[in-house]
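Category: protein sequence paired with discrete backbone structure
Discipline: computational structural biology
Format: plain text, a pair of labelled lines
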Amino acid sequence: MRVRDAVEADAAALGSMTGRPRGVVRDMIHDRSVRVAVADDAAATGEADDGSDTPADAVAGFVAFDARDGVVHVTNVEGDVDAMWRLFEEPVGFATREAMSVEAVLPADGTAGDAAESVGFEAVGSGPRIDGAPTTRYRFDPEESG
């Protein structure tokens, strides 16, 4: 699996993962740091309809994050478990280089939380309810994880 910067052509794939309109996803791609995970052999499957080298169905997941007030905030992560595990490495790597911590509020269903914990995040308490569903707050501090 390889990870690359998201481009506007990824908006349809990311929109289908989140249920958000394409325009909202395009804005997210422009306003945040967004990385997509694609299968290593995605480029070999042929050219996508939009002329990019990655067919929309080859996108296995994405992570969106931004930095403010000395903290990297994961604002969205979606995808299969392997993709999420790899994608969490992106904000963690940025935060480590910049000596910042990382925070994420994730659904309490366990999938994203398990992926976050596998790269060193710790659950630090409950988060706000989002669309009526419970969430958990996670934090990664590079200084504490060695």
